[in-house]
Amino acid sequence: MILIAMIILIVAVLAYFWLMMMDLRALINQLTFINQHTTNQQLKVKTRNPVIVALTQQINQLIAKQQATHQQSVQTKQQLDLAIHNISHDLRTPLTVASGYSQLLLTNENLPETEHQQVSKLNQNLQTLSKHLNLLLLYNRLLENQITIIPKQLNLSKLLTQTCLNYYDALQQKQIITDLKIKPNIMWQLDEEATTRILQNILGNILDHGYQKATIELKQINQGVQLTATNQLITPIKNFDRLLDRFYTEDLSHREQNAGLGLYIIAELTRMQGGQVSLNTKNLQFQIQITFKLTDAKKDEA
């Protein structure tokens, strides 16, 4: 009798644990679905096991808190994006008017030297503000999916050379010697407006953060093209992993503040055209590399 009772007890315990394992597997499957999908679903159990029921209730409370936090985060982001949109457009007109007046004053030959210097400084600050505003407007267009990529056969070598020439005087003024290694007549299917903005932001990044020397290289690689921009820094980068985050900035040149959108926009516009961006830094050197390669579909077309 004792042996039979022990067998029954063991069977009962095993059955209890087996049912508990089945309940836990059901919870794990539901949790896996919730983690892999955007849903307001919570855990449901059919068991009457008080331990499993209590565990489910606690997990559901955590899920509810996480869902509420996520919803609040989404709403905050939407409000921030709307504020950026409104502020950017509200500032554009008065900024354009102020820039026009400052440039007009600079052409006044009767303006005393002291006042001319003050107006010149004002004009430089307005240009910096205008640059940041343009980045905000472009960022807003990216958020609202208002940028349409229209690829065409583009002479990337010619476009890069022209962009470098446009920045030549500014680079000379900041005493940054730029070595150009641009292979001629490199053609690729790219959107001209988006690619121009990428190149402008690369040169702008060198202008803002570079020191003494920079190198810009464009070459063909196996079934693709590669653009590499390298510049020296005054101080090492502190948080390398955050450089592509929007609005993150480091004052690497000790000269002027930065909007923290340049590298983010480069990465987004490159991604939209099927390219890849990689960043590297070592000691007092920073490098950004952009690579466009043929996709399988383009290989078949070729």
From TrEMBL:
Any Pfam family matching the protein: HisKA
Name assigned to this protein: histidine kinase
UniProt cross-references to InterPro entries, sorted A to Z: HATPase_C_sf, HATPase_dom, His_kinase_dom, HisK_dim/P_dom, HisK_dim/P_sf, HssS/ArlS-like, Sig_transdc_His_kin/Pase_MprB
Catalytic activity: ATP + protein L-histidine = ADP + protein N-phospho-L-histidine
Keywords: Kinase, Membrane, Phosphoprotein, Transferase, Transmembrane, Transmembrane helix, Two-component regulatory system
Record localization: Membrane
The EC number(s) this enzyme carries: 2.7.13.3
Domain of life: Bacteria
SUPFAM superfamilies the record matches: ATPase domain of HSP90 chaperone/DNA topoisomerase II/histidine kinase, Homodimeric domain of signal transducing histidine kinase
GO cellular component: plasma membrane
Organism: Secundilactobacillus silagincola
Chief place of localization: membrane
UniProt GO molecular function: phosphorelay sensor kinase activity
Residues annotated as signal peptide: none
Domain named Histidine kinase: residues: 86-296
Enzyme superclass (EC): transferase
